[in-house]
Amino acid sequence: MIDKPYVSTYQQSRQKRKIYTILLILLLTVIAFIISMNTGFIRLSPMELLETLLGMGTEKQNLTLFEFRLPRIVISVLVGIGLALSGCVLQGVSGNALADPGILGINAGAGLAVVLFISFFPTTSDVPVLFLPILAFVGAGVTAAVIYALAYKRGEGITPTRLLLTGIAIAAGISAAMIILTLRLTPDNYQFVAVWLAGSIWGSNWMFVLSVLPWLLILIPYVFIKARVLNTLNLGEVTATGLGVNIEKERLLLLAAAVALAGASVAVSGGIGFVGLIGPHLARQLVGGKHQFVIPASAAIGALLLLSADTIGRWLIEPSEIPAGIVVSVIGAPYFLYLLAKSKA
Amino acid sequence: MSSLAVEQVKVGYSNLMIIDDLSVEIPEKKITTIVGANGCGKSTLLKAIARILKTRKGTVYLDGRSIQLLPTKEIAKKMAILPQSSDTPPGLTVFELISYGRFPHQQGFGSLKMDDLKHINWAIEVTGLSEMRDRSVEALSGGQRQRVWIAMALAQDTDILILDEPTTYLDLAHQLEILFLLQKLNEEEGRTIVMVLHDLNHASRFSHNLIAMRNGAIVEEGTPEKVMTRSNLKAIFDIEATMSVCPHSANPIYLSYTLHKLSEHTLQKENKKSG
After folding, report:
1. Fewer C-beta within 10 Å: chain A N or C terminus?
2. Measuring CA to CA, which residue among A129, A256, A244 is closest to residue A193?
3. Beta strand residue intervals within B95-151, DSSP E
4. What is the DSSP-derived secondary structure letter of residue B62?
5. How far is B204 from chain A (nearest CA, A)?
6. Phi/psi class of residue B244: alpha, beta or left (left: φ > 0; alpha: ψ in -120 to 50)?
């Protein structure tokens, strides 16, 4: 046995570099946060912004910042974190770098719930739109549960490949059903559904912030604690079992966490894709394969990505706006193709 | 020390039972190798011992307790497994991957304690990976990578090592390197080693104990002298072997062999050649 346990200087500097990278992404997110507070139809100069934040703003400035802009920014950040972490967990559990919350039918399930709701209670009726996040969440959860049940095989449990294939099939089926349902909607309602599906941060008030926040507060620490388990799951089933991981139990719990994270996010943001795919992917490229680093880096990148997309979407065609989901897709689709072209298989 | 015993085990895959009723005891602090033809159930037996496959009937006992009832993490502190193949995740250094072997001993977020580092560094040292500890695992050759996986299993710090064909896909020299390493671990550390090997001569040379299987049952079990006989090889593999003695270990080996039941055509060909 070696008496002096040591970590090589290379390993130490590698570790430091990863931490600095994560801090840098967080810094960029803060900058995007500040720029985003400035962006919009009503201009707020940096000075005015500071005054308003310190409680010395005019009534109009207060309203713009605190009631419209800030909740929207906060939601972008939270949803970005939620989707990226969900993708990070899914990619870890499935061992497939192309897994994304959308693949578990989460976006489709949430969308179907929303379309069904709108078909029966048009937006013009008195039923509060606040029901939508809850419905979308339930829709996401039910769909994920159905996919899990269909992919489950007695004696073998759940295998990632079967889960992904079942997810893709179910999502395709739900999308078809949704198209049929939307054809029967009135133009107004159709418009609402279309915007929702495109993924605009539409629920921009503090109520919606409160509907996502608790989920993240519980699930983020949970995912962090499971970093070691995700590490071992990446080595293959037999190796993970040999290391003492109860694979079936951990997979089920982690999948549930991923569904809850994405479901809660999609509920307030609509069908935003690609953040869950790109976030963890970029994270792994930047900080390597250990989940102790991939998880925080994914979360930070997700927040930065969605906040930037929403800000760009608001600024590009003022005073109208492009849904953040579209902006992310415009960046995400080429990146996805690039990944496919680069992957060996 | 940890003991292993298999009692009246029935095991296989969802609708195909490979082993019906098998009992065997694995001697402590010895190298035991399971041999047999393709599909004879040797890997299945190894997987049952390693709790990868659940037994339908019967029990595998680790220190006298059923492995089905022990928490999997407790088992992982006593028994490490090296599967036929593992996935290599991208973006990991040799050191980082080997550190994953500490999983059963860690808590919470998983920062490495002094004790963890001690075992990781020892595993790196003993597998001769010191020079490569900071290299990316993806950049390593097959032989080097296999040593990294063995080092990970060693970092787990267990009395028992279970290896499924650890030398497959390696060239001759690298095969021996791995086997010498296992021999050293057994002799110097007293670790119990259970493995499946395809190469009979290697099995005979490096094992204290051989388990020869056919059709899910044990044909013969015991020292290489007892198992590696002409008649046993016929019974296990349907081959006619020419036997000799290994100059390195003094254990029996085969020099060459031919099939026991040759078809008319191949028989004629063989006769022509021999003259």
Report:
1. C
2. A129
3. none
4. E
5. 27
6. beta
CA dist A263 and A79 (Å) reads: 10
Nearest CA in chain A to B131: A8
Domain coordinates of chain A in residue numbers?
Answer: 18-342
- pLDDT tens series, chain B, 275 aa: 678 999 999 999 878 899 999 999 999 999 999 999 998 999 999 999 999 998 999 999 999 999 999 999 999 999 999 998 888 888 899 999 999 999 999 988 778 899 999 999 999 999 999 999 999 999 998 889 999 999 999 999 999 999 999 998 788 988 999 999 999 999 999 999 999 999 999 999 999 999 999 999 999 999 999 999 999 999 999 999 999 999 999 999 999 888 877 655 666 666 666 65
CB-CB contact of A294 with A283 (8 Å):
yes
CB contact under 8 A, B72 and A246: yes
Residue ranges of the domains in chain B?
Answer: 1-78+160-226, 85-157
Domain B1-78+160-226 fold is Rossmann fold (3.40.50)
Rg (C-alpha) for chain B, rounded Å, is 20
ipTM of the complex: 0.88
CA-to-CA dists, residue B63 to B5, B67, B195, B209, B238, angstroms:
8, 9, 19, 20, 37
CB contact under 8 A, A1 and B122: yes
Residue A232 burial (C-beta neighbours within 10 Å; 0-12, 13-18, 19+): buried
Neighbour tally for A117: CB within 10 Å: 20
Q: How many CB pairs under 8 A join A and B?
A: 119
> Cis omega (within 30 of 0) on the bond before A319?
yes
Integer Cα distance of B154 and A267 in angstroms: 47
**A24: contact with B, CB 8 A cutoff:** no
Q: Which H helix or E strand runs over A174?
A: helix A160-183
**CATH number of the structural domain A18-342:** 1.10.3470.10
Residue A184 in contact with partner chain B when CB distance is under 8 A: no
Taking an 8 Å cut-off on Cβ atoms, the answer to whether B133 and A8 are in contact is: yes
Helix/strand/coil percent split, chain A, to 5: 75, 0, 25
